[in-house]
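Can't paste images in this forum, so I'm doing it all in text. The chain is below; anyone willing to post the predicted structure tokens underneath?
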Amino acid sequence: MNPDIFKDKELVKKTLNALKKKVEKLENIRLMEFCGTHTHNIFQYGFRNAFLPHIRFIAGPGCPVCVTSEEDLAEVKFLFDNYDVGIIAYGDLLKVPLKGKSLLDYRAEGRPVEVVYSAIDAVKIAENKKDKEWVFLGVGFETTTPGTSASIMIAEKKGIKNLSYLSFHKNTKAVLKALGTLGNLYADGVILPGHVSAVVGYNYFREIEKFGIPAVVVGFEPLDLLAGISELIDMILKKEVGIKCAYPRAVNERGNEKMLRAIEDTFDTIDAYWRGLGIIENGGYELKNFYDGFNARKKYSIPKELPVDKEKGCRCGDVLIGRIEPTDCPLFKKVCSPANPIGPCMVSYEGTCLAYYKWGVENQRLD
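Text version of the structure:
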């Protein structure tokens, strides 16, 4: 199938008009897009306000950098304060505030901070700069966790001694379960993440059935989004619960078994902090004991409890679970902007606040 069909303007317009008629039977239905890329694309293609007042889209905790907690970032500060180490990280983590300073600020002061596109690059840096101890910050959901697994396995096989890993990886199944159990799933239906589902398979999220709402795995092109939303609306109209997949060209029931095996071989699930939600049971991934030599928490004796300063007035945590929209935050556009981000929701490319800032009503397209 030609992938361009999912961006065909005429087909998208026809599908959009048909969906508008379908939702006229509904009133104030709330659909949570779990994935940050979905948030941006629903804005970018003009769909966020296209179905009002029948459908409202609310953001979920699907931005990996945004849910990286203050407790996680305090561990990075501990390393800088107590050890002469270099940090290796993905670029969207550089500007996240860290007690008034970001990794970008530390780098400006001369501290070694390297930016990579792949966890495998961390191995190359450690090999090429053997005079320095390096710590790679593993951030992301099940999409990036296998890359960190591969990096660890390669480092172990090569016998690299000057590289360790600080895992901030998060478990998406655990947070959906937590939101449903705690009554914080402020939605009538959930748009499940396509990228994560390609790795874990859509059966991974079956527990959402227990919370009495429908969920659909959705892709990212305009027609993908409309088809997935239509499927979800059909389920709501029929009062169906459970999970369906509207992204079969990339997602199956079982997922990518090789990538899942890599995660299982290198990580255990542990209770972990999520920004705005506190500790989530089995919400994070930690290196198995076999890889203790590569675990930065153990190598540098990072305390389990570190002092944490919360950013006053920042409501990124409430945005991440759909309790409020960014425009409800008193700092939005007044103090907090991409040039002066107060919280990570304004920093990451997948951040909800950045989406609202970049793709506000006045900037939306529907052509």
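The CA atoms of residues 33 and 278 lie 21 Å apart. Residues 362-367 have pLDDT under 50 and may be disordered.
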